[in-house]
Amino acid sequence: MAGQYSLRPNSSSQSLSPSHTLASRLLLLLTLLPFTLACFAFLLQWRGGLNDPVSRWSPDQHQFPGMSTTAPSLPSHSSSSDCVDLLGRTHSPAFSYYRDWKFDYATDLKPKICITTSTSAGLEQTLPWIFYHKVIGVSNFFLFVEGKAASPNVSKVLETIPGVKVIYRTKELEEQQAKSRIWNETWLSSFFYKPCNYELFVKQSLNMEMAIVMARSAGMDWIIHLDTDELMHPAGTREYSLRLLLADVPANVDMVIFPNYESSVERDDVKEPFSEVSMFKKNYDHLPKDVYFGNYKDATRGNPNYFLTYGNGKSAARIRDHLRPNGAHRWHNYMKTPNEVKLDEAAVLHYTYPKFTDLTSRRDRCGCKPTKDDVKRCFMLEFDRAAFIIASTATEEEMLRWYRERIVWTDKSLNLKLLRKGILTRIYAPMVIIQGLRNSGIFSSVISSAVQNTLAKDQFLSSVESSNSSRPIKSRVISSRKIGINRGGDSQAAARRVLEFLDDLSDLSAMPPLSPPSLDNDLPVPST
């Protein structure tokens, strides 16, 4: 019928063109493919066949950036010993991926860094100090030990740690050092034949000279002299790694200066400074000049200087020919003036008098008279002199009052003010790392391993407690006070002879510990 439309569809509309069919199938394939792959990945991971990148950093995987190592499981350890309480396992794990590590380093790990120290500290201080520095990339340690550190119960534990070499102060060692090159030179001579801090300074320099030889034999690239109350703080690196920090130093640089920060304790009952102290006073080199001098009086709090002790930092030296120490804080070279750089973020954290007992322990190590004149003969820095006098003449109550006034930062409003100004700063990384190491059981595992190789467990722990007491230790190690004793006559003249060189570089005086700048001067000067 004309004017009517047929409702029957056209035959051509019942079939799709080939190109339309191909597009539909491709769309279906693209839709199903991601879903299929997701299901497949889920099945593999559920069955343990997929190495999930996130799971690589789980507590059961013993890897961390810059290190790779395996070790047997660590036994738990419990004891009433104070030493084991400080170093043992707790029940609140943190940083658990440290578990089971021995911190052995691959031979191709670069650069190779070593630390040398002269110490008389016990295990409660040396074990956290060693393993913290292993975490941030130090592979070798040269420990020149005496006192408590040289006692069999402590030294045998230290000797079992991979990468640690223990050197005892014996008569043979002192005789060898008396024939060394720097003993017969003039740059260190002003520190000879003086007690206490001066004697320690000479001893450290002689030990550093030997450590250079050991470092070269061990294939080290960098050497650092550090005390066991100091921790390296490699701020500014992506992985908090001293190894990565030094790897970025240009090849023409011989020495890297690390300005020191000084601990600012907030309690008078600190027992384990590395795990309990987080507030530090920043170095002059890391502060704007107007901020430093504008807050100098508040930061000093009536003490002789901005820092209680030294303020000229520590240094790392690249192992090169003709390297020598230049005192405990710097290195030098017989043939040239070292090319040095000073870092603007990384630092050395110096835990200065963090425990009240540090007052009496330093007093007991020095036989000087507690007079203003005699302490100048024994100590280089003014605060050390004042601390020795108060510890030698005051009662326990008077010492505690003095300690709180001069060392403990109890004024919270002042602390907050100086934190906002940037004079004080909070640094938590060492605290977290060392607490994680302690929780992992590494310290107790090292002690247990030493026990298995030496004494029965109960006997060993008992003797460790005994060695931590204040009684004098008798061992095969002789007193270090023979260094600097005037032997008189020809031997003294021979020890003082001057070696001639083509230049005068060897006559540069050793750098002593220096106080930071004061309001009276813009540059640090040595105390007299």
UniProtKB/TrEMBL annotation:
<dbReference type="GO" id="GO:0030244">
    <property type="term" value="P:cellulose biosynthetic process"/>
</dbReference>
<comment type="similarity">
    <text>Belongs to the glycosyltransferase 92 family.</text>
</comment>
<keyword id="KW-0472">Membrane</keyword>
<protein>
    <recommendedName>
        <fullName>Glycosyltransferase family 92 protein</fullName>
        <ecNumber>2.4.1.-</ecNumber>
    </recommendedName>
</protein>
<dbReference type="GO" id="GO:0016020">
    <property type="term" value="C:membrane"/>
</dbReference>
<keyword id="KW-0808">Transferase</keyword>
<dbReference type="GO" id="GO:0016757">
    <property type="term" value="F:glycosyltransferase activity"/>
</dbReference>
<dbReference type="InterPro" id="IPR008166">
    <property type="entry name" value="Glyco_transf_92"/>
</dbReference>
<dbReference type="InterPro" id="IPR044224">
    <property type="entry name" value="KOBITO1-like"/>
</dbReference>
<keyword id="KW-0328">Glycosyltransferase</keyword>
<dbReference type="GO" id="GO:0009737">
    <property type="term" value="P:response to abscisic acid"/>
</dbReference>
<feature type="transmembrane region" description="Helical">
    <location>
        <begin position="26"/>
        <end position="46"/>
    </location>
</feature>
<feature type="region of interest" description="Disordered">
    <location>
        <begin position="509"/>
        <end position="528"/>
    </location>
</feature>
<keyword id="KW-1133">Transmembrane helix</keyword>
<keyword id="KW-0812">Transmembrane</keyword>
<dbReference type="Pfam" id="PF01697">
    <property type="entry name" value="Glyco_transf_92"/>
</dbReference>
